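Hi P.,

Sorry for the delay on this. The queue was packed all week, but I finally got your sequence through. Input first:
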Amino acid sequence: MLLLQHMILSHHNEPEYGSPKRPMIPEGEVLHYLDMLDARMYDMQKALDSVKPGEFSEKVWLLNNRQMYRPVFQENDERDSNHEY
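Then the structure:
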């Protein structure tokens, strides 16, 4: 139970983000990076929700003022049309 409590308390990693301790076990470090990855994917998806394929989003402050790009995917790419599956 102590390790689980430590993971919960340390998953933000930085004191300025509300974490009283930085992770002191490998599982806590992994949880921290999974939390960061989840947050970034959420921010990217939110930025791309209103973007059409082939266009860029507005700059996203939470992602270091980067613009996100929504790629264009074609279902029937010409390279695949000549192959039998």
